[in-house]
Amino acid sequence: MQKIIKFTVVLFFILILLVFYNSLNRGTNYSTDYLVGNKLTSISLKNFENNKTLTNNDLKKNSYTLINFWASWCAPCRIEHVNLMKLSKEENLKILGVNFKDKTINASKFLDDLGNPYDYLTKDTDGKQSISFGIYGIPESILINDELIVLKKFIGPINDQDLNVIKEIINSS
Amino acid sequence: MRLKIIYIIFFFNLNLSIYSNEPSFESTIHKNLRCLVCQGQSIADSNSDFALTLKMVVKDLIEQGKTEDEIYNFLSDKYGDWILYKPKLNVENFLLWFLPYLILLIGGLIILYIIRKKGKKT
Amino acid sequence: MLSNTGNFLLIINIFLSSLIIFKSLNCLKINDNLIFKNIYQISLLQSTLVLICFFTLVAAFIVSDFSLITVYQNSHSLKPVFYKISGTWGNHEGSLLLWVIILTIFSFLFLIYNNNHPKNYRLYTLIIQNILILGFLIFIIFNSNPFSSISPLPKEGLGLNPILQDPALAIHPPLLYVGFVGSSIYFSAAIASMIANYSGKFFARSIKSWVLISWTFQTLGILVGSIWAYYELGWGGFWFWDPVENASLLPWFAMTALLHSLLVLEKRDTLYFWSIILCLLTFTLSVMGTFLVRSGILNSVHTFANDPSRGIYILIFLSLMIFASIYFLFTKYKPTNDLINSNSKETFILINNWFMMFYLVTVLLGTLYPIFTDAISNNKISVGPPFYNSVIIPVVIAFLFFMAIGPQTKWIKNKFLNFKSLIAILGGAITINLAIIHFFKSYSLISNLIIISSLFLISSSFFDILKKKKSSFPRIISHLSFGFLILFIGLNHNFSVEKDFNLKLGETKKIDDYEFALLDLKLNQETNYKAVVGELKVSNLATKEKRILNPEIRIYDNPQTLTYEASIQTNFFRDYYLTMSNIDRSEYYNIKFQQKPLMIWIWISVIFLSLGGFLSLFRNAKNN
Fold first, then answer.
1. How large is the ipTM?
2. How does residue C244 score in pLDDT terms, banded at 50, 70 and 90?
3. CA of C489 vs chain B CAs: smallest distance (Å)
4. What pTM was estimated for this model as a whole?
5. Among A155, C177, C378, C608, which residue's beta carbon has the most beta carbons within 10 A?
């Protein structure tokens, strides 16, 4: 009996210390990029230019859609824009741009200057829509398939590596 | 009158105009939501862009008649359980919620045992 | 130059610690009760040199010697001298040096003040304490050396984080370190006591003062930290259940439990092994807290610059401490016959320990659980204030009741004193609570119970002052102020007013009984920052009271940081607390206004709580 207690106590502490050791090399900054596999429901985004609303059904016909949240005041958005332009040439992929908390004039100028990679362009003026996509900072992009299931999340600008990941996914089938 | 006297003696001042202020439903929710872009702050404490937006959405959801739990579930679906400061009571968090009370129970039993032991001997 | 001096002193100190261990081992072989004189001398020399070593670093900070990496990274030549000095321990490396100072000075003082205890017990304590010192010195030299030099010599330092440039935060670390590093001495003494078979009431007497010192300083340290958080973090709260705060609270619970169990050990010679466990637990929790804070595995408001390699070292150190403790406990444990009567004082002290363990486990679990879920199942969760409040607060009510009736019992005897008076006091507490409800409308059941139970404790402590002899005065002070602390927190929590809104320059807004107007915004240029100072008029329409508050948004230069300074007006009845912050891409400012009743009394209660510790310490010193 005594031996069992001693053994358990030692094991207990070893477990704690191992977990501590294991946690040392984990980042503490939280990121939501592990939240994949969920299905997007009740999408309702206002068109950038007119009052039409974009809904689930509009995206179901695409085999892959990349939803990209951006704004003209966001510096990293400028950086990733080059990669978005490259992606816009992909046939399997449609890009949905959501202009986030931005002024229409500035946003239009941004696209005039850098080019428009978006197949659909919508706006989220007060930012409320971003919450239902689980966005917490821009730029942020979500790759979904035709069933509107989230395949991958990109927190921060899409870099060259992300670009390849996206190409690989959309051309795999 | 007697109550009043006790009160004056105790608080040395009647002019203490404090208000009963049960925290509102909304602020309870705000305090339970973690601001993802801040360091250890709830959205009630933060003025970041994200916190301000989230507050607006919470307001909308309340107006839509959503319950507290429905709002939490909605947000933890989108952002993960990390966003909730009060972890959900589920299988994974079972220990977190019950171990403290288990310790309380066991501690009480140990004390009873020590006292009883003496009782038998005398 | 200073770099060489510092490194030299560190190496000398390693040598001296080893020498003390060696001499002590030699001295143990001789069969008399005399400790070699040179052990005293070396110990004194060791403490002196550690102090000189520390002052070398202070000097480097004062003269802004940027050839030292630590000074370069944490100071700036334009910083006020006061913050240059406090910058010495405001960073990881320098604070470790402060650790070693406390370890060595406590080691020396314990040696010289305990000469009525047996030689082997004192020497074993000295040896173990010096092993701890060695561990930290090695850590300093190989991993976190404050005297590491940098070349080429930088022209200017990077500056200290502005929110750390604060008088409260300058004294916070030293206070806290005396508290939890001070607990090392009874960790060493506990192991020594097991090795030397020196148990019972004499052991209790030898460590009681040290427990009191560390407890008192820990209490003050936590207080200063939370005052700082109150006015600097700008959210109006003073306790956030943040992992770093929890790390300072965990040893406090263990110390408080120990403080009480030592009373039983001293008077009745029972609970020896339990007290030993608490001694070991206190310092282990302190080191664990340091590990959590410094290794950066926790996401917290108070981020210390973190680095996994530090983490590894502290983790190894922690493991050695834990397994050494377990080894000695397992080999030396003898079942004892603890005889305790149900309504005796001993029972109530056990009840205190019981509740302390509950608080400790809850806070420990809350702090570590996210690490565990992340490591084991990759599930990231947060544990924050709503969790702690809902688990702990209901239990505090029962705790306060026990705390009120416990002191009314006697040692050994199974008997309550003044049972009838207690009932009367309880009646009184309920009446006062009814009065509060009557005048301020109702509030929740839990709050009612918290206020009744704290009033019960307060009145029964007052009753004690009237009835009892002087001997229990420190205890009464501490218990009384603890009751007041909970009462004030309860009232503060229930009757505070919070308004959160956006306002632009020149605008006036009416919310319930209040009217707010942003009259003016001024730009001030200070020595090391620019400030946008708002002028806000707050009018209470019900009482016709008007006041002007001046919150600031500061932009610091070195390093570039934005901070929000709350404008706080304090009086004996309440605090007015207002912060202003800019909203991105908008001309509006977010304003948070809070009216917090009896705020200052919360701080005063904690000061009196620790005063009880001081008084007890003086009485204990006088008696020995």
1. 0.88
2. confident
3. 14
4. 0.91
5. C177
